[in-house]
Structure formats: structure tokens, C-alpha cells
UniProtKB/TrEMBL annotation:
Keywords: Membrane, Transmembrane, Transmembrane helix. This is HdeD family acid-resistance protein. The chain crosses the membrane at residues 12-33, 40-61, 81-108, 128-146, 152-170. InterPro entries: Acid_resist_chaperone_HdeD, DUF308_memb. It comes from Chitinophaga oryziterrae. One of its GO terms (cellular component) is plasma membrane.
Amino acid sequence: MIIKTVENAIKHWWISLVLGVLFILVGICVLLTPLASYTILSMLFSITFFINGVLEIFFAIANKDHLDGWGWQFTGGIIDLLLGALLMSIPGISMVVLPFFIGFGLMFRSMIIMGLSFDLRTYQVPGWSWLLGLSLLALLFSFLLIWKPLFIVVFTAMAFFGVGIFRILLSVKLKSLHNITRI
């Protein structure tokens, strides 16, 4: 996601903040949800992916004239939307399959976040390396989730925390770019 012009900086920077808070709240819910309530957890994931997909699609379309590579965010939104719809339509999905859906979804999202971090570096936005580090952390947790599905609660929560913190930090950076253009 490369900003084409500083004058047309991100209009909807707050969407990233909302997504970050949503991911962190889901991470907290994951840690507090016992394994016996895994069906509730799967619906929570389903709804989160669905809402994230809707918001990502909206963000990409709203900023398509201002962002290069907006199609990647749009694609990520479609994947999350479809994944959420699939998981909501099959609420009793087994604990064996769910970690892989979530792990690969988070892996894809982490790679997108990594690209966004490098885009911020291109524009010399301070702190971009922290965002890159968080994307790598989320990527690591997605690999661990796929490798050791039995630890889904902890690994999933940590991956959501990583993505959530990244999204909040990204919104702060995007808001600072937005504020610079308003002066």
C-alpha cells in the first residue's frame, strides 16, 4: 500500500484503529474462553473474520484512488469475508480443522502487514520497524498455530494481539500522515 500523494493521505485512518481494538478484544476473549466452550470460540472467530473482511473491503475501495496496491487489501478483505461466512455457516466445525483455517488466514494477513510496514518505511515514517516486528511476531504465531494445533487458545490469542497492536500503531501513523496534509 503506497500512498500516491501526501495531499490525499488516508481518509479513513480510524478503520485500522477499530480493527486493532477488535483484534485485541478477540485475543482477550480467546484467553478467557475455556476449551469446553470451543463452539462459542469458533463463532467468535467467524464473526471477527467476517467483520474484518467487510471493513477491509470498505477501506480498500474508499482509498483505491489514493493507494497503490489497494487490491491486496481488497483481496485480504474478500478472503476474510469468505472465511467468516464459511465458519458461520458451519458452527460445529471440528477443533482439528479450525486452527488451520485461522493459522493460514493469519499468515496471509501477517504478510500483508509486512508489506504495509515496508511501504511506511518508503515514506520515512518513524517507527515502521516496530510495525514490521509485530507483523513477524503475528507470522510466527500463525506458523506455531498450524504446527501445534493443540495450543490453539494461546497461539491464537497471541496472533490476534500481534495483529491488533499493529493495527492500532498503523492507525496512529496514518493519522499523523493525515494531519500533516491538513496543515
